[in-house]
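Support case: user asked for a sample of complex input and structure output to validate their parser. Sending the pair below.
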Amino acid sequence: MTEALLQVEGLVKTFGAGEAETRVLRGLSLRMDKGELSALLGPSGSGKSTLLTILGTLMQPTSGSHMMLGVDLTTANDRALTDFRNRHIGFVFQFHNLLPDFTALENVIFPTAVREGRETAAARARGRDLLSRMGLADRVDFPSTNLSGGQKQRVAVARALMNSPELVLADEPTGNLDRASAIQVMELIGQINRDEGTTFLISTHDEKIAATCCRQIVVGEGVVTG
Amino acid sequence: MLYALKIAFRYLLSSKAQSALLVLGVALGVFIFIFMSALIGGLANFILASIAGDLSHVSIVAEVEDPVLLLDQNLGHILLAQEKSALRQAFLRDAAIYVPMIAALPGVVAVSPQITGSGFITRGGQVAQVAINGVEPGKESAIVQLDSYIVAGSVRLGTGLTIIGQTLADDLDLTVGDTIRLDSAQGVNALLTVSGIYKIGQGGFDRATAYVSLDTARTLMALPQGVTRIEIKLSDLMAADATALRITAITGLKAKSWTEQGAQVMSALQAQGQTGLLLKTFAMVSIVIGIASSLLLSTYRRKAEIGIMRAMGASRRFVVFVFVSQGALVGLLGGLLGAGLGYVVLQAFPPRDAAHPSVMPIDIHEGAFGLAVLLTVTIATLAAILPARAAARVDPVTAIGQ
């Protein structure tokens, strides 16, 4: 049996209180193995984004357990979660979310620099390598604001991979791209998954994107339905 | 935290106009702080130099001690009225012992044993009342800077010589080399030659004080030993109270600080100092408000970026450091710019030694440049804490969602 990367059991997440209380996750359970390339599907409001946020340690569940790499993340404090996130989890957002005052390379090496307290030569070299693999070797020192939408999303993918995380969570990574750029980004993700064994969980509404993944996880009404 | 510093610097550079305005505002505050320090300090020095410069900072004056009355205790109730003697002269018998002891105290610049009294000068049919001040030859300028006030003749005193004020010389139509007769209240008289004429600028002083040598005064006052007062000059006149206490403790003589007579001057200077402090505090408060509001605005504007940083693994502490560093950098740049501006502007004013009443007595040495920069960096850093904490509390999920 393949080794489990993460396992959540009975995840519940509610927002608000009293009559305004909204239960988004209703006892969701999920296991992901190392090296998976999975698509997270489901209609709007089904709880996909909330699940990604909790798996990314940006939010704590109301109840349930969340284990990753053998660490119980439901009881960890903010400092521990921040450190864990930095070392083991990468993010790709729908709107790239690059730091506008930084160049492409500076954006990519941010996760390492923030951990080490400075921009090392080794980090720069890895950043350049990642950008090169994303086809952006000639855009390394470009201000991020001067890049096209597709280029920005590829920089975001490179940034997510900078610390060689075990898990990359991508929330609609191609939702804001044209077809060609979307295919390019998904091909890169697939290649990294195959080459480095990085686990990807990609939230998408696009059936064609989902079809490129090995596994489809369907969420509905706050639980995994398929 | 070098990386946080780099980001802080980058953020400041990314909004060049806003940062420049902020730094300029801080610089203005620092300039006001420095200017006020130089003005208040310079004014205080000028007033003190004008008022207390020619005073003895500490004085020991002999006091008449009435003799103890020896009464028979068995006489019952006695009503006794003792009349103070007007004839007996007080003097400090052991002055010769104490003078070197006092001169050796730290901060003492000069010690001048003196014999003082009253008398009148006669020249022909003209008579003028004067205060006789006997000082040691060679120490004529120890307390009052006579050498700088001499308008004719020499400041040097000796046997048979006297130095008188310009007004008195005018009243009696005297010039250097003229002879006068000086009669003391003790009934002794001497013929003296005017060796110098001074002009201090205070009518009363220039009309009523005649300087003679200590030996001449001893003869005139019929004082075979001791002196009537000891005047002491200090390097720091604000140390007069402490030095007076110390002299009293060492010698047992009653030493008085100039501040006892100059209490009004001191309270005026204190009020002036407090006004300056208030203005300087306002300048610093404006810096705090400027930096805090600007960084709060920056926090709001960069909310999404803070969220991204937090998502990428930046700790709350890192975020706090980025924003506090921005405050510190603004404080440092503004502080240095303000100090530089202050230095350039204060150069336009005459130096401390050349101050005179017609221009503002601004003293560049009182500018407190180092303190201004240090204080600015400190309060700028403190002012950034509130926005920094607000930044650190940004919820990455909400921020990225924006």
